Amino acid sequence: MSQEYTEDKEVTLTPLSSGRRLLEALLILVALFAVYLMVSLVSFNPSDPSWSQTAWHEPIHNLGGSPGAWLADTLLFIFGVMSYAIPVVIIGLCWITFRHRHNDDYVDYFAIGLRLIGVLALVVTTCGLAAINADDIWYFASGGVIGSLVSSAMTPYFNQATGTLVLLCVWAAGITLYTGWSWLTIAEKIGGAVMSVLTFASNRSRDDNRWDDEDDEEFEPAPVAKKNSGPGLS
């Protein structure tokens, strides 16, 4: 049996252009900042020093230190529970930017404007939904200042259920503006996934029933023949 051996090719490191160097360096810094921000939010403690806490007599509990405590307090005050999604969004944007770093096509500013409008709609509606339907976190409003303003503006005109439906409609429109996905396509994808799960469960149930029937047939006792007793001897 013959084996083929290939020579190791020498790997050459091609230097990046000035723009690429700056882009990748910025992406690394932004990604590290997002990780730091998530750690600060998760380890937030109300007794830590912040702009809403004027006096404290305990050591700082936040893993991000004093800057992390200030950042977490400010974000929770403005955005509420949505603050925990901000680092994830930042990481996602960094990944998308890194994936399209070789794309030198024409920049569509109209599409960028639509995406920004979609992001704004998503932020406002998410904070509003949290303010209407979620409980407060620590001493902050669940939707932050933004959610409280949206909730206060909608309260005179809508009740809780109607306001939630209105915000969900705007939220869905924001998803379309930001991603460019059609909700018809999303509905088809969701329907296809649900049908796949139901089909799998149905086939699994039929297989289980078939195996149960085979087991019953295998362990079914054989019929016992009755002996005919003759007339007794007198």
TrEMBL record:
Subcellular location: Cell membrane
Transmembrane annotation, as ranges: 25-44, 75-98, 110-131, 137-158, 165-184
InterPro entries: FtsK/SpoIIIE/SftA (IPR050206), FtsK_4TM (IPR025199)
Region (Disordered), start-end ranges: 206-234
Acidic residues bias locations: 210-220
Keywords: Cell membrane, Membrane, Transmembrane, Transmembrane helix
Topology of the protein relative to the lipid bilayer: Multi-pass membrane protein
Pfam families: FtsK_4TM
Domain DNA translocase FtsK 4TM region residues, every copy: 20-191
Entry GO terms, CC: plasma membrane
Alphabetized PANTHER family for the sequence: DNA TRANSLOCASE FTSK, SPORULATION PROTEIN RELATED
The protein's name in its UniProt record: DNA translocase FtsK 4TM region domain-containing protein
Organism the protein comes from: Tatumella morbirosei
